[in-house]
Amino acid sequence: MASDNVHAYVIGEHGESRVAVVSSARIAGMPLESACRELALPYDKDGLRRIVNDTRAAGLEIIRAKGATYYAIGTALARIAGAILRDEHAVLTASSLAPESMELGEVSLSLPTIITRDGVTRVVSIPLDASERQALKASAEKLKQCIALWKDIR
């Protein structure tokens, strides 16, 4: 299965508390479990957990191996700039102020966001299961703690 046919959001702060949203992941538009059944692939919850953990740790692994994540950042910025220039109304995970309805407090973190020529148009609310909601709240709190610490040392 080509990776272009797999879609899952990774949200939250850009670090080890990021949240891979497995509950709404899709393969060829089908929920993960249904797609696995349809394609005669194993649906392995332990394997999914390993993928989630590997995704969370990937940034540190890249930094250990290469010293930085310049190319990934450049690729993401080019994609966002293209969405702005072409007024795509693309839904991209980009750092956005969390809407009040998410009850995360006043914090900007990576969320599915509609990007147009005006920049961020709005955050798209995606379904999260209870553990993903809790993990996103923890990610937002971690980011707020980092911001408070940074303000203290300035």
Structure, explained:
By secondary structure, this protein is α+β, with helices and mostly antiparallel strands. Helices cover 45% and strands 21% of the residues. It has four helices and eight strands; from the N terminus they run βββββαααβββα. A three-stranded antiparallel sheet has the order 1-4-5, with helices on one face. Strands 6-7-8 form a three-stranded antiparallel sheet. The longest helix has 24 residues, at 130-153. The chain is globular. The termini are far apart. The relative contact order is 0.16. The model has no long low-confidence stretch (mean pLDDT 90).
Protein traits:
alpha+beta; 3-stranded antiparallel beta sheet; 4 helices; 8 strands; 45% helix
Outline the fold blueprint.
Layout: E1 6-7, E2 10-11, E3 19-20, E4 26-27, E5 30-31, H1 32-38, H2 45-66, H3 70-85, E6 90-97, E7 108-116, E8 119-123, H4 130-153
Antiparallel strand pairs: 1-4, 2-3, 4-5, 6-7, 7-8
Shape: globular
Could you give the order of the helices and strands? Answer: EEEEEHHHEEEH
The value of Rg in angstroms is 17 Å
Widest sheet, order of strands: 1-4-5
In whole angstroms, how far apart are the ends? 49 Å
Number of continuous helical runs:
4
| Mean of pLDDT | 90
Number of strands: 8
Structural class: alpha+beta
Strand content is 15-25%
Main sheet characteristics: 3 strands, antiparallel
Q: Detail the poorly predicted runs.
A: none
Percent of residues in helices:
40-55%
